[in-house]
Amino acid sequence: MTGEHGNQAVRAARQMVRTDQLLGVGFVPLPARRTAATDAAAGKQRLLDDLRARHDRECPHCTTATAHTQTVFGEGNPDARLVFVGEAPGAEEDRTGRPFVGRAGELLNKMIVAMGLEREEIYIANVLKSRPPNNATPTPAEVMKCAPYLAEQLKIIAPDVIVALGAPAAKFLLDTTEGISALRGSWHACRLGELEIPVMPTFHPAYLLRNYTPEARGKVWSDLQAVMKRLNESA
Ligand code: URA
């Protein structure tokens, strides 16, 4: 076996081992992926850079909030097929300016690897772009002010699938008051102007860290498997 097929086989074998090690669950097929080094990606990155500058200049929430030291815009492949949306930066994210780099981020990284993906090929963002005081859950007023920038970010990236990590992300993306337990495990749609993007809500990694039971892990893994299946089907 040579070239791309050989690489895929090696990746598939590595993924099988990692998936078993990390989650104690079976193998899922590798999805086709968009590569970052395309003109589309470069164009999207420019739009994201402009949006970031505008957000930092004018976001009615982040320009008046006082508990953070810097905003955390989001990061990853601007042309990603898969975007994870979390809640808000925590202490480590506020310190580094990067999303999901604390304990919850370590678990998210494991989930990404178990899906046969690399962090660089997906995109990660949050509902709020600045750290709430005492890591409080974002209030509806805060979300109303800051999350429109997330909506613009998602319109630019236009991924095939979004995973909503936890209730604040699911509620904003799906425009619902329904709780995460009721929403997770089935497909929903996020409407962004002309775009309609499939959303799989699942438990937030921080929730999983607090409730590291086989049942909770199994539910998250089954949600992520549905995401992998959808990505493979639409590849
Ligand atoms: N939790 C989140 O929701 N987002 C982060 O970036 C980090 C932790």
Written overview of the protein:
The chain is α/β, with parallel strands linked by helices and 235 residues long. Helices cover 49% and strands 12% of the residues. The chain has a six-stranded mixed β-sheet with strand order 1-3-2-4-6-5. The longest helix has 21 residues, at 3-23. The radius of gyration is 17 Å and the shape is globular. The model has no long low-confidence stretch (mean pLDDT 90). The structure holds uracil.
How would you concisely characterize the structure shown here?
With 235 residues, the protein is α/β, with parallel strands linked by helices. It has helices at 3-23, 39-58, 91-96, 103-114, 140-157, 167-174, 180-183, 205-210, 214-233; strands at 75-76, 82-86, 123-126, 161-165, 188-192, 195-202. It starts with a helix and ends with a helix.
Main sheet summary? 6 strands, mixed
Indicate the mean pLDDT. Answer: 90
Which structural class is indicated by helix and strand composition?
alpha/beta
CATH architecture: 3-Layer(aba) Sandwich
The helix count comes to 9
Count of β-strands: 6
Number of domains: 1
One letter per element, helices H and strands E, the order comes to HHEEHHEHEHHEEHH
Instruction: Identify the strand order in the major beta sheet.
Output: 1-3-2-4-6-5
Compounds present? uracil
Shape: globular
Report the uncertain regions: none
Classify the beta-strand content into a percent band: 5-15%
